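ingest -> validate -> predict -> emit
validate: passed (alphabet ok, no gaps, 377 aa)
predict: started
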Amino acid sequence: MKKIRYIFLIAIGLATANSCSDDSFPVPPASTVPNYTFTITNDAFAPATVTFTNTSIVPERAGAVTYTWNFGDGTTSTELNPVHEYTVPGNYKANLVVVTGNSMEIKQSTQTVFVKDPNATGVPLFFTNGQSVFSALINTQGPVPAPLTGVTLQKTYGLAVDTVNGKVYMADAAAESIMVSDLDGKNLAVFRSNIGETDGVAIDYANKHIYWDTSEGIRRANMEDTDVNQYEDFTTGHPDDPEGIAIDPVTKAVFWNTYDGDVWTKKMDGTGEKSIFTSLGGGSVIVVGDRIYFDTYLSAGDISLLSSNFDGSGIETVATGITRLVYGIGYEGDGKKIYWIDRDLKKIMRANLDGTETELWLETESEPRGIAIGKKK
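emit:
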């Protein structure tokens, strides 16, 4: 499955059999490697106490060593393994600086500590960077993203929120599985395994089905069946690589985009499969009212977000100049805003449904992908 429209030329040099033992190429002495782990109390809600564990590697030759911590809230420490309380919600850059005496090294490591606001309300938006899943609230205070505790994945693109049962489904393409957890990441479990490389997932509440794409088709499974191997093929034989999937409960239709070609639709009863829009490929599609929203490739660094009627007519442009295939479109009904991913710029954007009032909603630390929007809390 292709994910990047670039061609890489890799040159590999083969060393001679005795080069590893050649004294003219000595192994350099080990250097200092700063690192740490941390745990956080109170489910990461403020006030939260964070225990930092210093796991830095410092060779003996380095000599005396000092550690300086900056917790990102204006306070510092020189302890080996400090404990610090964050009383105000926010995202804090915790920085560890390691200074050695003999080797005169200055190395540092920075991680983000996410401290949530227990009183914040809004509509939760979920996104992933491929390995972790984050949640942030759509509200007037501005988004403060925090990772779902305990969720670690291999290579995730698609997300779906079950607003009825309070679950989030995560399509892990590399693991060829769909994972499911509570909205806070607890009770993580395998929903389906050995299902093919999947990038998108969508929920059909009426029939209690979950749909997902593979490299050659669409599959679906019964949400109430606990067998991780249960599923059926909904459509097969699509060499253009289906990507992203959406459900329209009114017309009982399924829509999917493709990496190398058209946007397709098919009725849930298995009839009416057809291409409705010819494009150069895309990664996502969603249904909003009586229209679909999807991305399409124009050229490198120029992806457009379009909308159309269900039959592909009435094409309108929502956004242009997106850096890569989107792999993440969502709609928030209260604000009537559409959200999408711009991966290379590490941004989540939003606009009105007609593309007006386009603005940055969140700038992320790593490449975002996948968007799922839940119910207001």
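The chain is about 0% helix and 45% strand.
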